[in-house]
Specification:
The longest helix has 34 residues. It is built from 16 helices and two strands. It is globular, with a radius of gyration of 22 Å.
Length: 458
Amino acid sequence: MRRTGLSWFAIARLGLVQTALGAIVVLTTSTLNRVMVVELALPATLPGVLVGLHYAVQVLRPRLGYGSDVGGRRTPWIVGGMLALSLGAVTAALAVALMSVQPFLGIALAVLAFTVIGGGVGAAGTSLLVLLAKQVDADRRGPAATIVWMMMIAGFVVTATVAGHLLDPFSLTRLVAVSLGVAAAAFVLALIAVFGIEGRPTPMPAPQQNPQSPQSPQGPQAMPPFREAIRQVWGEPRARRFAVFVFVSMLAYSGQDLILEPFAGTVFGLTPGESTRLSGVQHAGVFLGMLLVALACGRLARGRLGSLMGWTVGGCIASGVVLLALAFSGFAVGSWPLRATVFTLGVANGAFAVAAIGSMMSLVNDGRAKREGVRMGLWGAAQAIAFGLGGLLGTMAVDLLRWALAAPTSAYAMVFAGEAMLFFLAAGLALRVRGVKDSSVAGSVHARGPGYAPVGGD
């Protein structure tokens, strides 16, 4: 089989962008969070709002993806996004230091910083996925998604470990210095990762203000304004349904993040150290689930062990089943194998997550041509909104149910069961995506001209 896409070495190089992105994100959403709450004794709501803001800004992902479609290249958007992310991280650290002497001014600067951080994540992340989707061969997309996401997690781990050592003995000056060092190193790493990877396609002409005018060019070189481009992508049944699937599944996926450790401590009586180790058990399962998808969908398996969309559906169903088991576990505290259950949940979550990302890469070319950035941006925005809402809704539901029922075990059980139902719903939505045809454009002779790419398989 003659290869036309990226080599494994090139895929791993692009994965370094995710490592760099993960390094900065964990610093801003975890370390700065703790400093605001513990060292500065500020309300926990403040970092919660700031992290939510960085997710909210990512609704701009379709517009950012559209910009890369018009320019014809993804590399400038990856580099520009990483530069914005790096500058935003340093500004956020300065803002936290400023909060110690001028709280309101520091908070205002932090709002600006986290807005820039969200824009940087959206620009770099969206364009990176499109670049991978367009340049990775079909049978390598599952393993490629695994490599890239495991490298992002590696960025989390390495930064948390190294920065943790460098921050002791703690001072706000040291916090700014460490943040500057991490941001600079991440940006240089991203530059090395993308250097020479992408070719130089011809950029498209500027958007036409009136695409229906007789003077407006029609054909493969004509790019409509953003509003028309997003309307076209939303009009594609497969892209629209996949966006809904991403939102529902990621809502279920993120809803458990902030309640699993409190559940283990409240219901099973685990100490903080024990619940932290339990989180490590879950992440070990996530790694295994990702590896399973990579092996099953890679070249050696030759498709015999299922498609990416098949693993996406299976991962959703398995996650739902394990969450139901977790819901019942609190009623059998003395005999229930909690560690094994959480590990299995990690495996199911890991398989679902990386298969869903691989499916994004496989589906991004389905539909109108030259809309890949808009399409990936739409799905990325759905994911960001779901992540922003998931943790908030999960914790609010637990608090409300504990107040209403006066029974922590029942409250957690109902929330876990609700998340399971969302996963089952997501599995059904994924099956609908798998079989849909893009009839919205198939029936038009004009739409099936040079600007249209026919829908492919999974």
